[in-house]
């Protein structure tokens, strides 16, 4: 689990307030039934530029609003307004280090009953420091989980619905208590879906292979970054198709990709070495390319980044509903 620090501020109730004022009732619908939608958004500190670069901020909020629509949650702000308040939060934190933004839209009424009809909606956003979610300096030892990924007609994996992450928690916890770093989860058809909370790629020869959207996966933004870097910088094709469990053991390399895990090499699955049991050359190259891009060191990919200069702001700001 990554190291985090308590945020100083949060956007709550339509304004930026001290973090200890951002509280919800134990009767809140989302707390009782998991009826919320969230995003995880990373910002990387570049000390030379004295700037935090937030990665794919617009794309995260576009996905966020699509997922809110799926869950019948109304967010009364535009993407630009959500981006503005996120930048304000990062400025006010003035962390001078890597940050993590967590917007959550949720059913906020204090009521008993699972129906979402007539239940009020609310939004909060906070920013915290955030280190490595998993150890990316070595290869990970993982297992294929006994838990299956929820399918699209149950709780869609493509939507970051809070309640769906019970599935991720069960898979991750099973892996950890059994001595592994992470889990790979199969979908109900028995094909590879994802890690507990990250997309997965396998490498065979000079081709990247990753499950498609119909395999019950999150439509990952880091996944998009990987495929573009692989094509533009390494000349590698990425194929989207179903992956059988046994194909994991045949892979030359395996890695996870996601906001939390970043680019993380997998060197063992079910006590079977992947390749030679070390971080593979393609995974290592993609990891280096990724960090150059997200830290603002490669000008070709600055369009992915929202820069936030280091300076503290005083007081609170109010974001008016559109």
What report would you give on this structure?
With 322 residues, the protein is α+β, with helices and mostly antiparallel strands. The chain has seven helices and 17 strands. It has helices at 29-33, 57-70, 79-93, 165-177, 221-234, 245-250, 281-294, and strands at 9-12, 15-18, 36-38, 41-46, 51-55, 99-107, 121-129, 140-148, 182-186, 192-195, 199-204, 207-210, 237-240, 253-258, 262-269, 272-273, 305-309. The strands form two sheets. Strands 8, 9, 10, 11, 12, 13, 14, 15 and 16 form a nine-stranded mixed beta sheet that branches. Strands 1, 2, 3, 4, 5, 6, 7 and 17 form an eight-stranded antiparallel beta sheet that branches. β1 and β2 (15-18) form a beta hairpin. The longest helix is centred in the first third of the chain and has 15 residues, at 79-93. The relative contact order is 0.17. The model is unreliable at 312-318 (pLDDT under 50).
């Amino acid at each position: 689990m990554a190291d985090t620090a308590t945020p100083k501020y949060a956007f709550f109730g339509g304004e930026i307030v001290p973090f200890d004022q951002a509280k919800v009732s134990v009767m809140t619908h989302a707390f009782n039934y998991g009826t919320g939608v969230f995003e995880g958004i990373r910002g990387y500190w570049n000390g030379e530029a004295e700037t935090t670069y937030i990665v794919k901020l617009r794309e995260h909020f576009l996905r966020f609003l699509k997922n809110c629509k799926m869950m019948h949650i109304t967010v009364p702000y535009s993407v630009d307004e959500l981006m503005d308040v996120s930048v304000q939060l990062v400025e006010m934190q003035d962390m001078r280090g890597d940050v993590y933004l967590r917007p959550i839209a949720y059913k906020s009424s204090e009521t008993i009953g699972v129906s979402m009809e007539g239940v009020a909606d609310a939004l909060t956003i906070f920013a915290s420091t955030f280190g490595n979610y998993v150890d990316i300096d070595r290869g990970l030892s993982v297992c294929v989980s006994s838990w299956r990924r929820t399918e699209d007609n149950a709780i869609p994996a493509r939507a970051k619905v809070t309640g769906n992450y019970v599935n991720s928690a069960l898979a991750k916890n099973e892996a950890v208590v059994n001595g592994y770093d992470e889990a790979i989860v199969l979908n109900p058809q028995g094909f590879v879906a994802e890690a507990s909370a990250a997309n997965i790629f396998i490498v065979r020869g000079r081709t990247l292979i990753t499950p498609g959207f119909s395999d019950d996966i999150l439509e990952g933004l880091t996944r998009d970054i990987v495929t573009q870097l692989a094509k533009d910088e390494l000349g590698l094709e990425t194929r989207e198709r179903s992956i059988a469990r046994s194909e994991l053991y045949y892979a030359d390399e395996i890695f996870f990709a996601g906001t939390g895990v970043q680019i993380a090499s997998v060197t063992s699955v079910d006590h079977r070495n992947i390749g030679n049991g070390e971080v593979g050359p393609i995974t290592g190259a993609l990891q280096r390319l990724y960090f150059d891009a997200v830290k603002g060191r490669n000008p070709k990919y600055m369009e992915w980044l929202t820069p936030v200069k280091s300076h503290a702001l005083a007081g609170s700001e109010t974001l008016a509903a559109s």
